[in-house]
Amino acid sequence: MSAAGAAPGSGASVYVRSGLGHVSALTRRNLLQIKADPDSLFDILLMPVIYTVLFVYVFGGAVAGSQEEYVQYVMPGLMSMIAVNIAMTAGIGINSDFKTGVMDRFRTLPIHRVSVLTAKVVVECGRMAAATVVLLGVAFLLGLRVPGGVPGLLAAVGLTGLFGMALLWVSVLLGLALKSPQAVQGLGMIAVLPLQFGSSIFAPTSTMPGWLRAFTDLNPLSNLADACRLLINTGSVPAGTVLTTVGWSVGIMLLAVPTAVSLFGRSDR
Fold this sequence. Notes:
By secondary structure, this protein is mainly alpha-helical. The protein has 10 helices and no strands. Helix 6 (149-177) runs antiparallel to helix 9 (220-233) and helix 9 (220-233) packs across helix 10. The longest helix has 35 residues, at 2-36. Mean pLDDT is 83; it is low at 1-8.
């Protein structure tokens, strides 16, 4: 009786360990690809620098009256913008891997389907974290202050990373659903631009017309930017704001992950 009861648990443990082993091996494979092609790191090294300098010195005086004040406002929003842009590249990479036949090879191997996609997401989360570090470094050079202290800054980074991970799964889903990298990039841009610029990332929503303000109030990027702004500048944030971002992130992943795994296993891909 006890042996029969232990068997399911033992089987589940073996299943989890084998899945983690597959993710680890595939993550290493993806990292070796980056090592062999260091040019793929240009976006995470240059994009944060260009965005920070461009927006602070072009819009700082007009929006906040000075570049110093605008750094405090825009930098938390740029964290979410960088996360979105890095996330969109994941789908292009997945789609390109299908063109080379690599994904077809993976689907014939006795490995967990989700491990192939999870490994891609893990590596892209690392790229996202590296881009965030570069962004913060540039922001500090431009005068960023952190009145909320290190805990507030780390909480903002963690919240952005959670939402970025959810968007990574959406990007992976697009990469699996669409037929070409160009289609993934085009549809991703169409979806991302209204979310980024129709938000509180770059300017307070109080200056926007009513119809646009209604959209920004529902925009999850506005909620994320506002939460990060409060965490960095004050160290505290209303629990409802954080829970809203967490809810968006979990809800997106609950829809995107199983759908992406199902699409990955399609025989007609």
